[in-house]
Design goal:
This protein is an alpha/beta fold and 404 residues long. It has helices at 21-31, 83-92, 127-130, 146-156, 168-177, 202-215, 237-247, 263-272, 287-296, 311-318, 331-334, 348-360, 367-374, 379-394, and strands spanning 5-9, 38-45, 55-59, 62-71, 100-103, 118-123, 162-165, 185-187, 223-228, 252-257, 279-283, 299-302, 323-326, 340-343.
């Protein structure tokens, strides 16, 4: 029997330490893809690697077809020429028409405008804040030209059969902005893989926390705070360092998992605040290592200027770790008081005060409460629902197969 073909487009390589919620989102769609589908990913390859050819690869036990479209040295750091532009230019010379096509940036769909098949686009941020030159903190180039972005978007968005947002207010904003296609626009929960991100028993959590303290040559009673993500203006990790400096608790150590253009500036700030013995920067790490850090941390910190529904926050909650975060994205809409604190002001003092509250009263933020908060976002459930809806549409007589 023929299988429907899903082709996913994004500028990353799932076998490398690529940082970002979009990458994690796509990896869940690879891992939990049902056998009824043939899944393809058009991504990036390592420098000097062969590009432009399909490869049969395995991801998390699932066979997929992978094409590295362009070579990319490090997708965690912005280059002078945006990677999205390079990726879009490479797509322009090809035709990847499939039964289903998933896009996670709208710019590459310039090349796909005439491709036949069902197209879906996923928006992963609060678009209004992302395009705001002030609120966006110079996170993306489009913030300098918001009118140009929305003009391009208005030309491209009508080609999509499904338009998904992980930020509910953005979904409502787009339904108002494009009333003629509002029925195609929907809110979609971001998935968290709770087969990887899950809590440890209290005794095991303490044992592994002490083991990490010994590994880092720290006292065994050391407690850990964790930040994970791209070191990028959107995440505002410099605010994180300032807040940790205000905390002034020598028994607490900050773990930073991630890389990006602000890494060197963060190191300078850590030195300026004389925090070098209280902060460890791991760089980009694998998902399993990140899960291990979540499981032994006393709190996860997010200091972003804007977000959609950050998967890394769901990963922390799934590991039983409470949150301290700035007021952005979807999380404040459903985060109960027993799973973390949303800081109403983006100042070091307010964030440090919230961190102190979680550290001093861990009994108010139990692992069970955190896990319960994340449970509705289980990747197996979220991803399976999307695939099942796709399969039902494919099985309709009116659905014409266009697989390449």
């Amino acid at each position: 029997m023929p299988k429907p073909v899903l082709t996913i487009f994004y500028q990353f390589n799932p076998w490398q330490s690529s940082i970002g919620g979009i990458q994690t989102f796509i990896c869940s769609f690879l891992k939990y893809a049902p056998e009824e589908f043939k899944v393809r990913l058009v991504g990036t390859g390592e420098p000097n690697s062969c590009t432009g050819l399909w490869q049969e690869r395995e991801y998390a036990g699932r066979s997929i077809q992978f094409m590295p479209l362009i070579a990319l040295e490090d997708d965690n750091i912005r280059s002078l020429i945006p990677t999205t532009l390079k990726y879009t230019a490479a797509l322009w010379r090809r035709n990847f028409a499939s039964d289903f096509m998933h896009f996670h940036r709208i710019e590459p769909t310039v090349a796909a405008f005439k491709w036949s098949g069902e197209k879906s686009v996923f928006f992963h941020n609060d678009i209004q804040k992302q395009m705001d030159p002030v609120a966006g903190n110079n996170a993306i180039l489009w913030q300098r030209f918001p009118t140009g972005y929305f003009a391009l978007e208005s030309q491209l968005i009508k080609q999509f059969d499904q338009i998904y947002f992980c930020h509910s207010e953005s979904a409502k904003f787009y339904q108002r902005r494009y009333p003629s296609i509002s029925e195609r626009i929907a809110y979609l929960k971001n998935p968290v893989d709770n087969e990887i991100f899950y809590p440890l028993a209290p005794e095991q959590r303490q044992e592994k926390r002490k083991a990490l303290a010994r590994e880092l040559n720290l006292p065994e009673e050391t407690r850990f705070l964790l930040f994970a993500g791209r070191l990028h203006p959107q995440k505002d990790p410099l605010l994180l360092i300032s807040a940790f400096a205000v905390l002034k608790d020598p028994s607490v150590h900050l773990l930073i998992a991630g890389d990006g253009e602000l890494a060197e500036q963060m190191r300078r700030e850590i030195a300026r605040y004389q925090l070098s013995n209280r902060v460890t920067m791991f760089g980009a790490i694998k998902q399993k290592k990140l899960a291990d850090l979540h499981k032994i941390s006393s709190a996860f910190i997010l200091t972003s200027t804007y977000e959609g529904l950050p998967i890394v926050v769901l990963e922390a909650l799934s590991c039983g770790t409470p949150l301290v975060m700035t007021n952005c994205g979807e999380i404040p809409k459903f985060l109960p008081a027993d799973s973390g604190i949303v800081c109403q002001k983006r100042t070091p003092q307010v964030i440090a005060r919230a961190l102190g509250q979680v550290l001093q009263h861990p009994e108010n933020y139990s692992a069970a409460n955190c896990v319960r908060t994340a449970q509705p976002y289980s990747a197996r459930t979220v991803v399976t629902d999307v695939y099942q809806a796709m399969l039902q549409r494919w099985q309709q007589p009116a659905f014409a197969s266009t697989a390449a």
